[in-house]
Design brief:
globular, 5-stranded antiparallel beta sheet, 15 helices, 23% strand, 469 residues, 5-stranded mixed beta sheet
Length: 469
């Protein structure tokens, strides 16, 4: 019966899920319903990688394989996909990756090993050369507390790049609706259908990748009566590069957007890699980061500094606004009843513009920010004719620094203007103390980052110890 089951391929075999509550995580379903206990729970929040599985996603007649955290995924997100767990790799013997892990002595207690193997399997299926930097990026979301990473990296290099894994055949189509008990999960394919559902269920949460909302499933065990998924809405999955702008649909994942953004905005690609591991980037979206409206949302200062335009759609049609006007207060936005985020349009960098973005956090990778600074300066003959500076972590919302901007505009890009902008930061913001950083530290770092921008743009080397990164 339509709407009563979820169809997928599980380790190469057709699978149909019935009567499982939609808020059930993939991790819990695998372990309790399917008894596939190789997939582990370590943190239940997408940090440790012990729960890593691989999704096979139909893509233009081929199959794209992506690692994902099963602890953050709701079971209905599997519809129309192939799911591969550690148990699905062996086919009459060890998979080459498993054999390489054994030969390289890359496992000790073994708890984290299945997730590591699955992350490397997804990496291998992607066809990248097994170079050190690429392997470390593939493993960024997997923690190993006893063996250490050298033998794991050795195993990845030993296994090589040749795809040698499970190939999904015909993946069943995904239904647009799933119900179990009193809970419903809708995954519409068109924007009009999403708007209609939004009007019918105004209190239902919107699910893009689930890297934030998934915590309510895994940690708080929340069961919403209705969840509206935007991940399959065709209009929201578009990424268009035009002559003067890039338009990013609200359901475009970080993984999909990364090559385009990395090439266009210096430093942004590295920031996105630091936002989360491949498991997180494969699910998380720029639109979700905007809708979440956190004052430390990593992409928001970039969008504000670039004067991006947000496109909203609701029953009354389309509404557009500068993205800096969208954030009203702490996690409060100008999104009206019935509206959804459709896309964000970001100007491309013309000649003469200097752009950088910097993130400061306690841990370099996969950590929540203390301060993020984004800078877009327009220079003519060494003089600053325009400046847009935005910070995250300095106020209740991501916010521009108008006094620092004024200190720079009209001045020559040099020591005096930099010093004036540094002083202005203390007037622009009154940050708070919290467990990530003190107010004094945030103010000092925000000022230091302006000097770092100047030193980098002047091809000078920043003095050691000045910047806490």
């Amino acid at each position: 019966m339509a709407g009563r089951s979820i169809r997928l391929l599980l380790n190469g075999e057709p699978c149909e899920i019935r009567r499982v509550p939609p808020a059930t995580t993939v991790l819990d379903w695998l372990r309790t319903e399917r008894r596939l206990t190789g997939t582990k729970e370590g943190c239940a929040e997408g940090d440790c990688g012990a729960c890593t599985v691989v999704l096979g996603i139909p893509d233009g007649g081929a199959m794209r394989y992506e690692a994902a955290n099963s602890c953050l995924m709701a079971v209905p997100q599997l519809a129309g996909k192939a799911l591969i767990t550690i148990e699905g790799l062996a086919n009459g013997g060890l998979h080459p990756l498993q054999r390489a892990m054994v030969e390289a002595d890359a496992s000790q207690c073994g708890f984290c090993t299945p997730g590591i193997v699955m992350a490397l399997f997804a990496f291998q299926q992607g066809g990248k050369e097994p170079e050190i930097e690429a392997i470390h990026d593939a493993l960024a979301g997997n923690l190993c507390r006893c063996t250490g990473y050298r033998p794991i990296v050795d195993a990845a290099r030993r296994a090589g790049r040749a795809p040698a894994g499970v190939r999904a055949a015909s993946v069943p189509p995904a239904e647009a609706e799933y119900r179990a008990g009193r809970q419903a999960f809708f995954a519409p394919r068109s924007l009009d259908d999403l708007i209609a559902l939004r009007a019918a269920y105004p209190d239902a949460p919107l699910l893009a990748g689930g890297t934030d909302l998934g915590l309510l499933f895994s940690k708080e065990r929340r069961a919403f009566p209705v969840v509206l998924s935007v991940a399959r809405v065709e209009e929201l999955r578009r990424l268009e590069v035009r002559e003067d702008e890039i338009e990013i649909g609200a359901a475009v994942t970080y993984t999909h957007a990364l090559p385009v953004l990395d090439a266009e905005y210096p430093g942004l690609g590295e920031l996105i890699r630091r936002i989360g591991s491949p498991q997180i980037r494969n699910l998380g979206t720029v639109g979700g980061n905007i809708g979440n409206a956190s004052p430390i949302g990593d992409t928001l200062p970039w969008l504000i500094a670039m004067d991006a335009t947000l496109k909203l759609r609701g029953p009354g049609g389309v509404r557009e606004m500068p993205i800096e006007d969208f954030f009203l207060d702490y996690r409060s936005t100008d999104l009206r009843p019935g509206e959804v985020i459709e896309s964000v349009r970001v100007p491309r960098l013309p000649a003469g513009q200097l752009f950088r973005i910097y993130k400061v956090s306690k841990r370099y990778d996969q950590d929540i920010s203390a301060v993020i600074g984004a800078y877009c300066l327009t220079l003519e003959d060494g003089r600053i004719v325009d400046a847009r500076i935005a910070y995250g972590g300095m106020a209740a919302t991501p916010k521009r620094a108008p006094l620092a901007e004024s200190a720079l505009i009209g001045s020559r890009w040099g020591g005096e203007s930099v010093a004036a902008a540094r002083r202005a930061i203390a007037e622009d913001f009154q940050p708070i103390d919290d467990f990530r950083a003190s107010a004094a530290y945030r103010t000092a770092v925000a000022a230091n980052l302006i000097e770092r921008l100047y030193l980098e743009s002047s091809a000078q080397e920043a003095p050691t110890g000045v910047f806490a990164l």
